[in-house]
Amino acid sequence: MIDLILYFKNSKGIRREIGKTKNEKETFKLIHQFLDEHNFKSYYTRIWLNPDNELEKIYDVGSHSEFFICYNPKGWEEDK
Predict the structure, then answer these.
(1) What are the C-alpha distances in Å from 73 to residues 2, 10, 23, 54?
(2) Coil, strand or helix: which one is 9?
(3) Taking the CB of residue 21, how many other CB atoms lie within 10 A of it?
(4) Which of 38, 59, 60, 73 is a Cys-bridge partner for 46, taking CB atoms 3.0 to 4.6 Å apart?
(5) Contact indicator for 57, 47 with CB cutoff of 8 Å
(6) The pLDDT of residue 77 is above 90
(7) pLDDT tens readout for residues 35-59
(8) DSSP conformation letters of 25-74
(9) How much is the CA Rg of the chain, to the nearest whole Å?
(10) C-alpha to C-alpha distance for 21 and 3, rounded to whole angstroms
(11) In whole angstroms, what is the distance from residue 65 CA to residue 2 CA?
(12) What 8-state DSSP symbol labels residue 2?
């Protein structure tokens, strides 16, 4: 069962789907796979709930202008 949808939002604000995952652990794997494919080294990850849509988490991996967004149709209950 697929529960989460991962998007990449570029510096122009354009969002594209990267993949679907079953849990947040798989989401991190997918993020790091994407970073490896694009030769980007992340030295930290900050995560927060999107204030405009509580069904989304935003992952900042250090680019300052590009982010990953994970959509959970069930919501992020543990973060409220």
Answers:
(1) 10, 22, 12, 10
(2) strand
(3) 19
(4) 60
(5) yes
(6) no
(7) 999 999 999 999 999 999 999 999 9
(8) HHHHHHHHHHHHHTT---S--EEEEETTEEEEEEEE-S-SS-EEEEE-TT
(9) 12
(10) 6
(11) 28
(12) -
Query: What letter represents residue 29's amino acid?
Result: K
Residue bearing tokens 């405009």: 52
Query: The tokens of 20 are what?
Result: 């679907």
The whole-model pTM stands at 0.90
pLDDT in tens, 6-30: 999 999 999 999 999 999 999 999 9
Q: What is the DSSP letter of 24?
A: H
The pair of structure tokens assigned to 39 is 């030769």
